[in-house]
Write a structure and sequence with these properties.
Elements: H1 2-33, E1 70-71, E2 96-101, H2 113-125, E3 137-139, E4 145-147, E5 169-174, H3 186-201, E6 210-214, E7 227-231, E8 233-235, H4 247-251, H5 253-263
Length: 281
C-alpha cells in the first residue's frame, strides 16, 4: 500500500512537469497579446545557435543563424482591416535584403506598433492600391520584429518594397524616420542584423558580400534586364532613386552587416569577392 501511495504523487508530478512547457507557452502568448511581455534582446556576443529546421533543403550552408522571434501578422491585422488579396508569389531563395525606413514618427510607444503597421498597410493597400503591405518584415524601435507581407516568414516571398529588385530579396522596414542626425536605436539595428543573418544564411550568403541581382524595372537605378552587383544587406537607395532608409540608418549598415556575419558564425574578414561584370549605366 505504501508503494502505491508513493507512486501516485510521483506520477502526478511527472504529468505536471510534462505539461509545464505548454502552459508557459500559453501564458507567454497571452501576455504578449496584452502587451505585457516583449521579446528578449537578441544576444549578439556570440553566434546565434543553429536552427537546422529553418535551413532551406540542399543549401549545405555551414553558416545558418538562428531564427529570431517574429510576431505574426495576426498581431496587427484583423478581419475588419484585411482585404481580399491574391495568393502570395515566391522566389527560389533570398540572396539580399533591402533596409527601409517607414518615414513615420519616431516617438511612438512600442505597444502601439501593431496600430502603426495597420495604418501602413491601409495606406499601401488603399491609396496605392497594392495587394498587400510591401515590406516582408518590420522592426520597431524596441527591436521587435513583425511579419509583414503574407506568405510565410520562412519562405522567399516576393515583396513590393524595392522597385526593380523585389525578386530574390526581402524588405526590412525600420519603423521611424532616420534622416541625418537622428539616433537609431541599438535594439532596432540588432534586430535587423539578426533577421538578415537568418534569411541570408538560408541561402549561404555572407551579409558582408555583394550579390548579383537583375533589375526588372527601368524605374529603378538600372535599366530593366541589367545585371548589377549590390550589397547583400543594401539600403533602399542602392537600387532606387530615394533617400530611404535615411542617412542615419544608412550609416549603420556596415555595422549591421558585421553583426549579421558574426551571428552566422563567420570569420572576422569576409572572403574576397568574386569577379563581377561591369555595371551598365
Amino acid at each position: 500500500m505504501s508503494v502505491v501511495r508513493t507512486a501516485r504523487p510521483r506520477g502526478l508530478l511527472l504529468v505536471l512537469l510534462g505539461s509545464l512547457p505548454g502552459l508557459m507557452a500559453v501564458l507567454a502568448l497571452a501576455l504578449y497579446a496584452r502587451g505585457v511581455a516583449r521579446p528578449a534582446r537578441i544576444p549578439l556576443d556570440r553566434p546565434a545557435a543553429l536552427d537546422l529546421r529553418s535551413a532551406a533543403p540542399g543549401t549545405g550552408s555551414t553558416h545558418l543563424a538562428g531564427r529570431p522571434l517574429i510576431v505574426p501578422r495576426s498581431a496587427w491585422l484583423d478581419a475588419t482591416t484585411a482585404h481580399t488579396q491574391p495568393p502570395p508569389r515566391y522566389d527560389d531563395k533570398v540572396i539580399a535584403v533591402f533596409v527601409h525606413h517607414t518615414d513615420s514618427p519616431n516617438d511612438y510607444a512600442c505597444a502601439d506598433t501593431p496600430e502603426i503597421i495597420r495604418r501602413l498597410y491601409a495606406g499601401q493597400t488603399g491609396a496605392r492600391q497594392w495587394d498587400d503591405i510591401g515590406y516582408n518584415f518590420l522592426v520597431d524601435r524596441c527591436g521587435t520584429i513583425y511579419e509583414g507581407r503574407a506568405g510565410g516568414v520562412d519562405r522567399a516571398v516576393t515583396g513590393a518594397h524595392a522597385q526593380g529588385f523585389n525578386h530574390r530579396t526581402a524588405g526590412i522596414a525600420a519603423i521611424g524616420t532616420f534622416t541625418a542626425g537622428v539616433p537609431v536605436p541599438r535594439a532596432m539595428t540588432d534586430a535587423v542584423a539578426a533577421l538578415a543573418a537568418w534569411k541570408l544564411g538560408l541561402a549561404g550568403v555572407d551579409p558582408r558580400e555583394r550579390v548579383r541581382l537583375v533589375s526588372s524595372n527601368g524605374l529603378s537605378r538600372f535599366r530593366a534586364g541589367t545585371t548589377v552587383t549590390l550589397p547583400a544587406v543594401a539600403g533602399h537607395n542602392d537600387g532606387f532613386m530615394t533617400t530611404c532608409p535615411g542617412a542615419a540608418l544608412t550609416a549603420r549598415l556596415p555595422e549591421i552587416r558585421r553583426t549579421a556575419a558574426r551571428l552566422q558564425g563567420r570569420a572576422t574578414a569576409p572572403a574576397p569577392p568574386a569577379a563581377q561584370p561591369p555595371l551598365s549605366p
